[in-house]
Amino acid sequence: MATRGIRNNNIGNIRVSKDQWEGATGDDGSFVTFDTPDSGVRALAKNLMSCGRQGYDSIEKIIGRWAPPSENDTQSYIQSVASATGIPATQSLDLNDPDTLVALSEAIGFHETGTRYDPEVYKMGVSRATNGISPKTPPVSADVFQALTEGITARPAIAVGQDLPGVAGIN
C-alpha cells in the first residue's frame, strides 16, 4: 500500500494549517491532500522558501524545524537529507535557487515516503513555486540515490498526472 504522503500527493507530509495551498483538494484529518504530485512538490518548495526567509537556511535548521525531536529522529533525518543532496548539514543555502529546492524536495520527499517521483515532477513543482524559473541541473544524482536505496528492489516512479495503481479517487 502506498504511504500516506504518496496517497495524498504530499511528499513533504505538510500538515493542515491556515495556508491555502494551490492544488490542495482537502485533507485527511492531519495532512493536506493535493490534486497532483507536482502540486505537493510546489507546496514543499514554497515551504522551504518560507523557511529561508525566516532564517532557517541550512539542512540542519530546516529539518530541526520540519521534523522536531518530539516527533522524529531529527538527527537521522538531517543526515539522510545531507547525504542525499551532498550538501553539508550546516551549510547556508539559497532557498530561492531552483536547483537547491529540487534537491531538497527530492531528499525530504524520499525520507518522508520512501518513494522517489520521476525527476520531472520535482522540476515542475519547483518551477511552479518559483514562478517559472526552472532548475538547471538534475535532482539528486543516481549514484547517491542508489547508495541510499541499496537493498530496495523496487523504485516506484510516479509521473506527473499518472494515477496511482490501486488508489481510487485521489488523483
Characterization of this structure:
The chain is mainly α and 171 residues long. Helix content is 44%, strand content 4%. The protein contains seven helices and two strands; from the N terminus they run αββαααααα. A two-stranded antiparallel ribbon has the order 1-2.
Question: Could you list some keywords that capture this structure?
Answer:
two-stranded antiparallel sheet; 171 residues; mainly alpha; 7 helices; disordered C terminus
Shape by Cα distribution: globular
Radius of gyration: 15 Å
Distance between the termini: 16 Å
Number of strands: 2
Task: Describe the secondary structure blueprint for this structure.
Blueprint (H helix, E strand, L loop, with lengths): L3 H4 L16 E4 L4 E3 L2 H17 L5 H8 L7 H12 L12 H16 L5 H11 L12 H7 L23
Antiparallel strand pairs: 1-2
Compose a concise summary of this entry.
The chain is mainly α and 171 residues long.
